[in-house]
Amino acid sequence: MLTFTTNSRTDRIPAEERARVLADPGFGKTMTDHMVRIRWTRDGGWENGDLLPYGPISLDPAASVLHYGQEIFEGLKAYRHEDGSIWSFRPQANAERLQRSARRLALPELPTDDFVESIKVLVDADQDWVPDYGTGETSLYLRPFMIASEAFLGVRPANEATYYVIASPAGAYFSGGIKPVSLWLSTDYARAGDGGTGAAKCGGNYASSLAGQVQAAEYGCDQVVFLDSSTHTYIEELGGMNLFFVYRDGRLVTPQLTGTILEGITRSSILQLGSEMGLTVEERRIPIQEWKDGVASGEIAEVFACGTAAVVTPVGTLKWDGGECTVSTEPGEATMKIRETLLDLQYGKTADTRGWMQRLV
Ligand SMILES: *Cc1c(COP(=O)(O)O)cnc(C)c1O
C-alpha cells in the first residue's frame, strides 16, 4: 500500500470563515484546506502520495489532458454521524468504478485500498469541514480525479498521470423543500454512443452533455434526458443522474446497463433497497413512448432521478418537441421512502446491515 506524506497548510482558512461557509455551503463553491496528490509514471508505477495545501496545480501547456481529454473522476460524500465520527458510502464501489473508467480511458488503475486511503487522509486533515450531524442533508463532497499529465502532443496514452482528491462542503440539494424537477427530452444530442465512453465517468461525457443541458434550460427545464444514440428510442439517463420509474403495480424499473449508461452506485443501491422493500425490480430497455403512455394511462405512478450529489430527485414533467406530460406535481411515496432509507443509512440513523458504510475518521 502507498504511504502519504503530510504537508499541512500553515495558513488554514480561519475558523470564522469556515463557519460562514458551512452555514450555507451550496454545492462545489468552496474547497477545503488540503488536497491529495499521487503521481504515476509508466516505468515507475504509482509513487507515494502527498497531502498538500489546496491550491492551483502547475501543468505544462502540452499536458495531454488539455488536448485530448484523457481524464476521469469520481464523486462521493463524507457524512458526519451523531457521535461525531465520519463515514462514507460504499467507497470501494467508487474505487472499482474509477478502475473501470481508467481502463476505458487508457489511464492507470489505482488500487482500491490506495483510493480509500487517499480519501481518509484528506478527510482526516480537513475533518472540521465535514458539516455537523443534524444540519440537514449536508456532507463533505469528495472529488477524486485523474489526469494525463505528460507533456506530449502525440496521440497515445500518456506515460505520466496524476491523481488528486479535493473536497468541498455540500448543502441540501433542495433548499426550499423537495420539488419535482422538469426534464427536457433531447432529440438533437446524445451523451454517449455504442462503443464510446458512456459507461466511464469521464469529463468528456459531461462536456458532450452541456449543449443538451443549455437547450433544456431554453425550454424552461431543469435537466436534460438522453435517448440511446443508435435508435433514438430507449431512455438512457440524465447528464449526471440515472432514472427510475415506479409503476402502480409495484414494479421499480430502470434502464439496463447497455454500455452507454453510467453505472451509478446510488442506482445499484436502490435496486437492492427496492427489492428489499418488496418492489419488483426490473432492469431493461425502456422505450420513451412507454413513459408518455404510462403517464397518460396512470400505469406509471412515479419517476425519479438518482445520483450521489442529489441522492433521489423526484421528476415531475417531461417536455419534448411538441408536447409534455406530468406524472405528478408532488414527490411520490415510493420515491420518498427510498430517499429516506438511503439518507438514514448514510447519516447512521439506521443500522448498516449491508456493510455499505465505511468509517473514515
Ligand atoms: C456519476 C454519475 C451518475 C451517478 O452515479 P452515482 O454513483 O450514483 O453518484 C449517473 N450518471 C452519470 C452520467 C454520472 O456521471
From TrEMBL:
PROSITE patterns: AA_TRANSFER_CLASS_4
Pathway connected to this protein: Amino-acid biosynthesis; L-valine biosynthesis; L-valine from pyruvate: step 4/4; Amino-acid biosynthesis; L-leucine biosynthesis; L-leucine from 3-methyl-2-oxobutanoate: step 4/4; Amino-acid biosynthesis; L-isoleucine biosynthesis; L-isoleucine from 2-oxobutanoate: step 4/4
GO MF annotation terms: L-isoleucine-2-oxoglutarate transaminase activity; L-leucine-2-oxoglutarate transaminase activity; L-valine-2-oxoglutarate transaminase activity
A Pfam match: Aminotran_4
Lineage: superkingdom: Bacteria
Keyword tags: Amino-acid biosynthesis, Aminotransferase, Branched-chain amino acid biosynthesis, Pyridoxal phosphate, Transferase
Signal peptide: none
Names of required cofactors: pyridoxal 5'-phosphate
Positions carrying N6-(pyridoxal phosphate)lysine: K201
EC class name: transferase
InterPro entries with a match to the protein in the record: Aminotrans_IV, Aminotrans_IV_CS, Aminotransferase-like, B_amino_transII, BCAT-like_C, BCAT-like_N, BCAT_family
Xref: NCBIfam families: ilvE_II (TIGR01123), PRK13357.1 (NF009897)
Similarity-based family: Belongs to the class-IV pyridoxal-phosphate-dependent aminotransferase family.
Record-given protein name: Branched-chain-amino-acid aminotransferase
Organism: Mobilicoccus pelagius NBRC 104925
